Amino acid sequence: MSMTNPSHKSVNKFISICIITYNQEHYIRRAIDSVLAQTGNSDIEIVISDDGSNDTTPQICFEYQQKHPDLVRVVASTTNRGVLSNWLQAIESSTGTYIALLEGDDYWTDPQKLSKQSAILQKEENIGFVYSDYFYLDEKEGTLIQGMNRYKPSNNLFEETLFSQSMVSSTLMFRRSLFDPALFQQFIAHRFLTPDLPLFLQFCLSAKGYFLSDTTTIYNWRAGSVSRPTTQQEDLLFRESIYRIRLFFIVKRGENKKLLLAKNEFIWHKEQLLIAWKFNDYQHAKQLTYTFPFVATWQKDKKIALLAILSRYRTSFRLFRPYITRKRPLQ
What we know:
- Helix 5 packs antiparallel against helix 7 and helix 8 (232-253) packs antiparallel against helix 9 (257-278).
- Strand 3, helix 2 and strand 4 (72-77) form a beta-alpha-beta unit.
- Strands 1, 2, 3, 4, 5, 6, 7, 8, 9 and 10 form a 10-stranded mixed β-sheet that branches.
- The radius of gyration is 21 Å and the shape is globular.
- The protein starts with a strand and ends with a helix.
- It folds into 2 domains: 2-221, Spore Coat Polysaccharide Biosynthesis Protein SpsA, Chain A (Alpha-Beta Complex), CATH 3.90.550.10; 256-326, no CATH class.
- The protein contains 13 helices and 10 strands.
- The longest helix has 22 residues, at 232-253.
- The chain is an alpha/beta fold.
């Protein structure tokens, strides 16, 4: 069940900005203010979808709706339904021809972001979505890291995104016609833990993407979020979800299936091994070594082949773990 402003007139807009939030009272003002700072487009709406927050996030959002009743619309769930359902609620509540996403702990830094991206979509009818460069904000260290330094899109954006996701949802603008609610419901039914990767992969299969090299967004990379878990169990569950998302789309696409399935299996085993080292789980690391035949693994990834050898013996695991986890951070 969700609550919204009953007096808000539903008129189709040119651009909808969908802000997705849950328990982000320390960040949500910054996100909304960064949207209000956008220039060049007046025919917009801001749809804020709150997933049953139990802090002051809903009150803050309704405060903005009260200040900007013709611009801001809050859709607030009375219970926490999960991040994918929250994304779906936000997008289905919007009316725009073009949709821009912003997660509630991220924010935009380029006041021309919406204008630049909508201009590209208007000019290039064969382009379905536009994504841009961004900065990671490492909240713990307080540092900014360029997100897509020297990035150039490959000729196969689907396979690039499948195994090396470069896009960040808060930089994205896409045509409403690309969004498939029925397919998104399948993502929910499969209990995927993250909505951005399956959405990106769907778009890559359906349309051409355009990379805007301007840095438009700060992506808040904070510990405890879905994509940056702090426990071994959470990390494994997240990586397993990514594995299942890849599997879903490899089967759906059908092309180059055998090779992509094998690559997906290898990456999943590799990630489990790295997580075992990260969380000092020798027993799990040792069990995983038997999934890495040395010669075949050496041909694919020499570092993992050596790591698998070191994982066979408790002494080498203990001896090399400080070096491995220090010199090669896993997150």
